[in-house]
Specification:
Elements (H helix, E strand, L loop, with lengths): L7 H27 L1 H6 L3 H53 L5 H14 L1 H12 L1 H14 L21 E8 L9 E8 L4 E5 L6 H8 L7 E6 L2 E2 L5 H7 E4 L8 E2 H5 L8 H10 L3 H6 L7 E2 L8 H15 L3 E5 L7 H14 L4 E6 L5
Parallel strand pairs: 3-10, 6-9, 9-10
Antiparallel strand pairs: 1-2, 1-4, 4-5, 7-8
Helix pairs in contact: 1-3, 1-6, 3-4, 3-5, 10-12
Bound molecules: adenosine-5'-diphosphate and magnesium ion (MG).
């Protein structure tokens, strides 16, 4: 029982190395599959294949290295088990020949000697079976003890009767690990129920500003209020439900168009779906799909064009019917004519909501 413990530390180290190379290969493999078209277009297929081969070889080496330790471990246990049985048999035989033991006693000893070692063998087998889990345990524990980005200590329910005012007061924020602040002394008021446009070049910090409003992170200093209350005073889920977002990179799920639309409002009727889609300027195109609103769109919305995906995300946000609507360059992939129409429709549909419209140029 004690012998194999000598290898424990080595086995744990090899196990971790094995797990790490397994993870690296799995992540790389998934990425390579998902970005096949990009890799092909960039002529990077050969290089990617070589990298995957290197990673596979590394996994092979790590597996063999772990197996070697593991087999030495098994060998030692088995040697002790078999050796113990043989020793018991020899002792029993010696005792029988010298007449020190009765025939029944010798018989019982021979039977029991191998039975005695059965639990040791079982234990060793289970230990090996559980070892892969042991190497994964560090990662799982780290994940379970990860703190959320912001504390959820607010108590207010965020059920504003009228659209709330959004106000930034001298907000400073620097991304962790960055030297330059992304936001330095931002102050503005988005009046209740009105459209406020935020315009600035790429990298100006517009998306960062919106992520602070949604409390993905808290500002380093300054205050963000919604409806006169600090964002931290609201329950996190309530605050986020009160703010509908169309982010810069939209995410659509592998599900029907209708399911994608109903994400934030599962009980919405078909008429409500159509109304939101019309306001986002995509109703006609959706109706023309093979199964209309019941067409299944691929992972990340792969069967739709960039502009269609954006407008679908827009419809989804409109359907959420939140009092605050945030659009982060939401029409950047839509052509100019459609853009003007959608903006007009949006202003009509968004009437009565506090709307933050982010763009990198003023015309949008
Ligand atoms: N998650 C992040 N980690 C570190 N730096 C970031 C992160 N997101 C954005 N930044 C940096 O913050 C600055 C503002 O980015 P962003 O808010 O995305 O600008 P915009 O949306 O106006 O184009 C940029 O310099 C960018 O590199
Ligand atoms: Mg941005």
């Amino acid at each position: 029982l004690a012998g194999p413990r000598l290898w424990d530390r080595l086995l744990a180290r090899r196990g971790r190395a094995h797990w790490d190379s397994y993870e690296a290969l799995a992540a790389d493999h998934l990425e390579a599959l998902q970005s096949m078209a990009t890799l092909r277009a960039a002529g990077a297929v050969g290089r990617t294949r070589a990298r995957l081969e290197r990673r596979s070889a590394a996994l092979h080496r790590a597996t063999v290295a772990k197996m070697r330790v593991s087999l030495a471990d098994t060998g030692l246990t088995d040697l002790a088990v078999q050796g113990g049985t043989v020793a018991a048999v020899l002792v029993a035989c010696a005792a029988a020949t010298t007449g020190g033991a009765t025939a029944t006693g010798t018989y019982l000893l021979l039977m029991l000697a191998s039975e005695c070692f059965r639990p040791v063998r079982d234990l060793s087998r289970e230990w090996h079976a559980g070892h892969l889990g042991l190497s994964a345990v560090d990662g799982i524990a780290a994940l379970r003890h990860t703190e959320g980005g912001v504390p959820d200590e607010g108590t207010v329910a965020a059920d504003w009767a009228t659209p709330p005012e959004v106000r930034f007061e001298n907000v400073h924020f620097t991304h962790p690990g960055r030297a330059r602040p992304a936001l330095a002394g931002i102050a503005f008021t988005a009046p209740a129920g009105r459209v406020t446009a935020l315009v600035g070049p790429s990298g100006a910090g517009k998306s960062t500003l919106l992520s602070l409003l949604l409390r993905q992170r808290d500002p380093d200093s300054g205050r963000i209020t919604v409806g006169g209350l600090d964002t931290a005073a609201y329950r996190l889920d309530a605050l986020r439900r009160g703010i509908a977002v169309v982010s810069q990179d939209t995410y659509l799920f592998r599900a029907t168009v209708a399911d994608n639309l109903r994400l934030a409002r599962p009980a919405a009727t078909s008429a409500q779906l159509h109304e939101a889609a019309r306001a986002a300027g995509i109703h006609e195109e959706l109706s023309r799909l093979p199964d209309g609103y019941d067409t299944v769109i691929g992972e990340r919305g792969a069967t739709l064009s960039g502009g269609q995906r954006q407008r679908l995300a827009l419809a989804r946000a409109l359907l959420a019917d939140a009092p605050v609507l945030v659009l982060d360059e939401a029409t950047s992939a839509v052509d100019e004519r459609a853009e003007a129409r959608i903006t007009r429709e949006l202003l009509a549909a968004g009437r009565g909501r506090t709307c933050l419209l982010v763009a990198h140029r003023l015309e949008a």
